[in-house]
Write a structure and sequence with these properties.
Blueprint (H helix, E strand, L loop, with lengths): L3 E4 L2 E4 L3 E6 L20 E5 L3 E5 L2 H13 L1
């Protein structure tokens, strides 16, 4: 059965995450920005099928990381 985490208005299937990148906004030092807006990206989730989701809100990113640790 799929494991979903609800963060803000998103439902994320954490079992479909292949890997993730944490940025400087959460203390990891990647410091990437979103290409179109230049907005800081806190977390980038990479899913099965080469799909990515960028999370710019640091508190939402922390929630997702906590859910990943629990699973």
């Amino acid at each position: 059965m799929a494991k979903f985490v609800r963060v803000g208005s998103r439902g994320i299937n954490i079992e479909q995450i292949v890997y993730f990148e944490v940025s400087g906004a959460l203390g990891a030092g990647l410091g990437r920005g979103a290409a179109p807006t230049g907005q800081a990206v806190a977390l980038v989730l990479h899913f099965v099928g080469d799909t990515r989701l960028t999370i710019s809100d640091a508190s939402e990113a922390r929630e997702i990381l906590e859910a990943l640790q629990r699973s």
